[in-house]
Amino acid sequence: MCYSIPGKVVKIDGKMITVEYFGEIRKAKNEFYDLMPGQYVYAQGGFVVSTVEVKEAQELLQNWKEVFLKLKEKDLRLAREPKTLYQIANATRQKHQDNSCCVHGIIEFSNYCACDCMYCGIRKNNREIKRYRMTIDEIVKQADTAVNKLGFKALVLQSGEDPWYTEKKLLELVKKIREKCGVLIVLSIGDRPVPVYKNLYEAGAKSALIRFETANEIIYGKMKEGKKLKDRIDLINKLKEIGYLVISGFLIGLPGQTEYDLMEDIRLTGDINPEMFSFGPFIPHKGTPLAKERIPALDEVLTVIARARILYPESKIVVTTALETLDKKGGARKGLMSGANSLMINLTPEKYRDHYEIYPGRKGMEQTVEDRIAEVLKLLESIGRAPTDIGLA
Ligand code: SAH
């Protein structure tokens, strides 16, 4: 985001390029630009989102250099002599992924949903919440502010499964954002036909956030009536085939889920091999049939993150807003110190933000975007994380 370091292109191999950040080498996919070695780019999540003039990049790097080395040193110091599971996961992250950390923005553009997922507060049958949808121009305007004023380099566009956004409207949205913004567009719009996803990819959306929710097909069937786990996994695999950088994972603490299930969830995430892992606690919502279920403890979530990091050392793991909701003051820090290396900032306009209530009490509702950004920067600085791109594995 506002906090990001440009990298120097050192090698080009078709769509795959090698980028250097203060001597560290990362891979990134380039689909938009005609690049030459020696040029500078911003990459996000392993994807080139914009180019930077040489002079501007060199000035930025000059300013970053000292800070960057200090951050690295701090991160290394905090990862020394690991003893607990969380510390071992953190040291594993440090060894394999260094101190790179990306911060994605998320715009929740509609809370209308045609589905009735048992766990979800915006399910069709919850009549208690106020529904909203942003117009295409409103979303584009918000994206423009996020990218061109606040400096975000990756934006998740999330909604319920809302057929009001036809393929035509979504294509218009993606194209308009791409025209105005050098950003990685991450779609989080649920089940849509593969050809629609293909066209959206061609239009410029290069990443998709789509969880399989649980690897237990019986629980899946109970949570999403009439839907099959296999179809969701097929869709995720097809998105990967199209070229999407996929972010995927599951919910922790669903009714009936055992510790064994959670290990299977981690295994399935590893099998899918997404660009980024996303695991969040299930937090019951009063407008759903699961209102009275238990909230998982913070430690259960941190344990999943730590185990995933140790089993898949090269992975990128995001701290979800739901985890931050379990511990509003310390959740993000604890997640990042237990193996995670990415964060999300909610950029949904304030007038709508409260209504995207997939679960209650979401972290960040009470803060302005500016305050939230300042909080995140302070946190990353305090634990020595730097905004170089994490790159592709
Ligand atoms: N319609 C899109 C986006 C859904 S909302 C899709 O189907 O992919 C994004 C994520 O929020 C879901 O994938 C789910 O894992 C999570 N979520 C929904 N209800 C939740 C709850 N009560 N607690 C925590 N996370 C929840």
Which descriptors apply to this entry?
five-stranded antiparallel β-sheet; alpha/beta; TIM Barrel; 2 domains; binds S-adenosyl-L-homocysteine; 393 residues; 19% strand
In summary, what is this structure?
The protein is an alpha/beta fold and 393 residues long.
Tell me what you see in this structure.
The chain is α/β, with parallel strands linked by helices and 393 residues long. It has 2 domains: 7-78, SH3 type barrels (Roll), CATH 2.30.30; 96-383, TIM Barrel, CATH 3.20.20.70. Helices cover 39% and strands 19% of the residues. It has 13 helices and 14 strands. The chain has helices at 54-78, 85-97, 136-149, 167-180, 194-203, 217-223, 229-242, 259-272, 298-311, 321-326, 331-336, 350-353, 369-382, and strands spanning 7-13, 16-21, 24-29, 40-44, 47-52, 102-110, 154-159, 184-188, 205-209, 245-248, 251-252, 276-281, 317-319, 342-346. Strands 6-7-8-9-10-12-13-14 form an 8-stranded parallel barrel, surrounded by 6 helices. Helix 5 links the parallel strand 8 and strand 9. The longest helix has 25 residues, at 54-78. The chain is globular. It starts with 6 loop residues before the first strand and ends in an 11-residue tail after the last helix. The model has no long low-confidence stretch (mean pLDDT 95). The protein binds S-adenosyl-L-homocysteine. S-adenosyl-L-homocysteine is lined by residues 119-121, 158, 160-161, 188-190, 210-211, 213, 251, 280, 282-283, 285, 322, 358-359.
Q: Level of helix content?
A: 25-40%
CATH class of the largest domain: Alpha Beta
What is the CATH architecture descriptor of the largest domain? Answer: Alpha-Beta Barrel
Q: CATH homologous superfamily name of the largest domain?
A: Aldolase class I
Roughly how many Å is the radius of gyration?
20 Å
